[in-house]
């Protein structure tokens, strides 16, 4: 599978469509999910063109991988949902069976309330 440069998150990264930005640095962009499933529902994406977690771990540099997960915990802190503030759930849907809709790697960050069951 090749990366689709016209996926919605690629368009957000290029500034072609807007997002409610939470945080950005050289490696990552984080923004609020357009259709929040919980009180707080954020997304974080790498700036590089990676389809999913498998693609990312296979092809990204160690620096990109480190900065991605560092960025994720930084966003949790900014949103005041990190472990000292009650905690959160972070997950990535991967591929068809994982329910991935947008083919650019993203982790969800859910918080601000009790998240409930692991899967449904
Ligand atoms: P997934 O099913 O893991 O691929 O999740 C894709 C997520 O992207 C869903 O939670 C959508 O609500 C969210 N989403 C789709 N388009 C946008 C957008 N333009 N801005 C913010 N979030 C979006």
Low-confidence stretches: none
CA radius of gyration: 14 Å
**Largest β sheet strand count, sense and barrel closure:** 5 strands, antiparallel
Overall outline = globular
Mean pLDDT: 97
Order of helices and strands: HEEEHHEHE
> What's the β-strand tally?
5
Helix percentage? 25-40%
Structural category is alpha+beta
Small-molecule components bound? adenosine monophosphate
Q: Which structural traits does this protein have?
A:
binds adenosine monophosphate, single chain, 120 residues
Describe the structure in your own words.
- This protein is α+β, with helices and mostly antiparallel strands and 120 residues long.
- Helices cover 28% and strands 21% of the residues.
- It has four helices and five strands; from the N terminus they run αβββααβαβ.
- The protein has helices at residues 8-13, 53-59, 62-78, 95-98; strands spanning 21-24, 28-32, 40-46, 88-91, 107-111.
- It has a five-stranded antiparallel beta sheet with strand order 1-2-3-5-4, with helices on one face.
- A hairpin with a 7-residue loop joins strand 2 (28-32) and strand 3 (40-46).
- The protein is globular and about 40 Å long.
- Bound molecules: adenosine monophosphate (AMP).
- The site of adenosine monophosphate (AMP) has 12 residues, from loops.
- Adenosine monophosphate (AMP) binds next to loops.
